[in-house]
Batch of 3 targets.
Target 1
Amino acid sequence: KAAANGTTTTAAAANPTFPPTKGQLYNNTTRPVYRPQSPSKRRHSRSCCCSCCLWTTLFIILILVLVAVAGAVFWVIYRPHRPNFSVSSLQLSHFHLTSTGVNSKFNFTLVARNPNKKIKFFYDPINVSVLSDGVDIGDGSFPSFEHGTKNTTTLKTVISSSGQSLDATQISTLKSDLKNQNGGLPLKVQLNTKVKVKVGGLKT
């Protein structure tokens, strides 16, 4: 509007109109500008990822090849075989089942063979248990010993149970086995120990 003194006021220009016009609502100057990633950067990131995967795969394959070669060399030099054990004899010299427990005595002979030419075994004391249908009816042990190369060792021990107390279910199981087996018992001999192995100068 023209003022009385002939000058033009600029208040309308300084203060925006209310409500805002459509041009002000859709003014894009305050919005962030979308800048898409250039194709060269995407291709570079993909190539780096593929390169890392390739080198990782090659490294794993190299490790597997080295392990296989080391195992083959070890086999050719030492020809390792597991030791084997066999029960030479198991004689029952005494067995008496009461209403509260069992008295038993077994003479047990075990034969241990080491077929290796360059590998030795060192055994801690061997604990022996005789079980019948899961019921422990005797315990014993073998002393610790060194099992040399190409060696056969015979071990003997007495397995016994002096008045070992059993519950009613265990006694019933043993009586049932004695009746069904015509005075015999199914037996399981269990041996537990720790073994050290010496290969050349290395002892595990």
Target 2
Amino acid sequence: MFKKLIILFLIAAPLGVFAQEKLAYINTQEVFTQMPEIKDVESKLATKQEEIKKVLTEIQSEYETKAKAFQESKEELTEAILMDRQKQLSDIESRYQTFLETSDKEFQELRQQLLAPLQQKLQNAIKSVGDENAFTYIIEVGAAPYISTSAVDAGKLVKTKLGIN
């Protein structure tokens, strides 16, 4: 009889521990996109993207102008001038490619620099909500194949903490 009681206790004890856990879920992407600061970040990124497009268009225009002039006067030019013009076109192509690569890198760095504080602010709000409400876990909606109806939607609480209506 005593053995059965111990076995029953060993089986039931873990169930009692899980029953006391408070679970919550959140869709961080949804909350993140609703943060008020995100509009400012998007505006700065759009401005940077427009600057990049403008410079790329200028380089492309320069290339097209020189290529057209080269094609129109190709038969009248000496071999040395032809070689020089081809090198100029090649240099412009190289400059275009280099600018494209460096501007993409700069854009990604700026994006990360602008988004990092917002990501940290969201994480701090999630932690704060978890601590205040004694949640054992706050699970990302997409990471769990099933979320019980007894789990709390922490997204609403986090939005309130961040001042999102």
Target 3
Amino acid sequence: MSNEYEKAFSVHVPPERAFRAFTDPTELEQWFTPKFEADVDEGAAGVKADAASPGGYVHFEVTQIKDDELLCYRQWAADPNAGIDVTVVFEPVDGGTRITVTHAGFGGDSILKSDSVRNGMFENYADLMLYLDH
């Protein structure tokens, strides 16, 4: 199994709208998780957050951010050292935004390296596409 996975897709909204769907807790609760709690202002480097998942809470820490263009964060379940690094790039295209999401670091003892968990995460992106396009 590869230690990296990439998913690219387009949505029919401008980059600032797509970016907000990834950084606003209220938006994240519409397509990603039923409960998303951020410790500080959303959309800031260093922000830490927790989200409900079927297997328990998943934790997030934003590592890099450039409004409407780039979002990088670390995601883990039990141990930050067994987590993954996620990079989301937002590119304007005719009629909307191309979003490229790269998940890297599916190694060690992370439950995130299992096919079922990885596939579930990418089902979330299908939910995002429906949410933004409709």
